[in-house]
Write a structure and sequence with these properties.
This protein has about 160 residues and is of the alpha+beta class. It has one domain: Small protein B (Small Protein B, Chain: A, Beta Barrel), CATH 2.40.280.10. The protein is built from 4 helices and 9 strands.
């Protein structure tokens, strides 16, 4: 969960709104891109309150553009009913043509997947999504990751107990 300003309760610039931790476990993340995201006013307000989830989100091609699918941004409670947005609507990602061609080439030729890694506000206060080209991990890779993580924790405990 993102840190919020103590006075206003909102997320300010240069802060992460949400992380997709599951993506780091399920995929080998190779190359990362920062993309703008096309949002409505109520979606930005919900993001400022930290009401977002990237857990089941993915990015894909539609008519030569990259779109973010299944990203959950909660409805903004203070807005009227006619101003609300659909929480899981597809959202267009704003990338340069060169980046779009690179991503789509890797997906079609090399079998990569485009995975959203985190959603954040940059220094100018604009909402950005960090996406990554990813290869899926096999089951034995996931077990190896878990073993390394557990061993790291045990190592820290041993070092702490020696001091």
């Amino acid at each position: 969960m993102a840190k919020k300003d103590k006075k206003t309760g909102l997320i300010s610039v240069n802060q992460t709104v949400t992380d997709n931790r599951r993506a780091r476990f399920d995929y080998h993340l190779e190359e990362k891109f920062d993309a703008g995201i096309e949002l409505t006013g109520t979606e930005v307000k919900s993001l400022r309150h930290g009401q977002c989830s990237l857990n089941e989100a993915f990015a894909g091609d539609h008519d030569g553009e990259i779109w973010l699918y299944n990203c959950y941004i909660a409805e903004y409670q203070q807005a009227g009913t006619h101003l609300q947005h659909a929480p899981r609507r597809p959202r267009r990602l704003l990338l340069k043509k060169k980046e779009i061609h690179r991503l789509m080439g890797a997906v079609t030729r090399d079998g990569y997947t485009i995975v959203p890694v985190k959603l954040y506000f940059n220094a100018k206060g604009l909402a950005k999504v960090e996406i990554a080209l990813a290869k899926g991990k096999k089951q034995y890779d996931k077990r190896e990751t878990s073993k390394e993580r557990d061993w790291g924790r045990q190592k820290q405990r041993l070092l702490k107990s020696r001091e």
